[in-house]
Amino acid sequence: MSYITDAEQEAFRSRVRALVEERVAPRAAEVDRTGQFPWDIFDLFKAHRFLAMLLPKDCGGDEASMVTCCILIEEVSRGCATSSSILASSWLGAFPIIIAGSQEQKLKYLPPLARSEGLMGFGLTERKAGSDSAAMETMARLDGDRYILNGMKCFITHGGLAMSYTIFAKTDPEKGVKGISAFIVGRDYPGFSIGKIEDKMGLRGMQVAELVFKDCPVPRENLLGEEGRGFAYAMMTLDRTRPTIAAQATGIAQGALDYVSRYAKERVQFGAPIANLQAIQFMLADMAIQIEAARSLTYRAASAVDHNVPDLTYISAISKAFATDTAMRVTTDAVQVMGGYGYLKDHPVERMMRDAKITQIYEGTNQIQRLVISRSMLGR
User: Fold this and answer.
1) Catalytic residue numbers?
2) In 10 A of CB 345, how many CB atoms?
């Protein structure tokens, strides 16, 4: 299996990079400052059909490879990580439908996303159930031809903005994760409301909120797949979307290295550019080494998704853990290379460092990734 991108994909990378440099990167600082969702960037992505890329052709999508989708995420992230989350988080919300949805569900809920009529969200996490999904308290009780949802989700990207959500709730509390089911919930359903909107350290323009369900009726036909299979669908989804987070992290790291490399050639100390100092050269070299390794793992994992390889869970977790740890190290070093200037909001590296942090946490903390990796290694 080849993990090398082809000429068409690299041409696509060049086109996206030019678009990001012209339209997306110049907005990044303001989006971070205001904390407002960048609807103008959403409209830009709509014009280029970016949200449609990952979706099936029979649902109005382009059915692009995960490798191509990760190229898109990486390049957008170089300029603005918030903007890349418009894509990655909507695909996360859509993937359970792609995996477990009936044809009727796919044709109802995926074409609007392909047309960029709105966003999608993914609702798994709760206050008492982060890494421990079995502890979730949101319940779904079957009542005739509908399920009644009660509970709360937290830290939901696109919370309050998405047109629909994939929501995980217990239909059989006695069975732990095997009692979790998945549902499609529209934002206009009665009994569904938005709770606290979070004030975050990074990804400032990406709205994250609580979802509150109080006797919320969900049509029985909105059950995804089978009852009790929700946790399995969630894990299958995360196996396939973690490469997008690896791509996001790789893009953030590359953006930081690009900026600080230019800075090092311009910043003069001791009568010469600091790029002439071996200490700085070695830091930049180490950053480049880590990014290239992260990129290779990212696209290996993306290719594994495309080919549905047996060890997808393993390589997906490795790519996510390594690339996001790399993003945190590289952005921290980028601030260090710039000294006091790196600590100021006049320069983007402090924003990139704040944005990088969440990549180590969401879609499974890197401690959970290491648990997944070790279990795969040990055959558990």
Assistant:
1) 363
2) 10
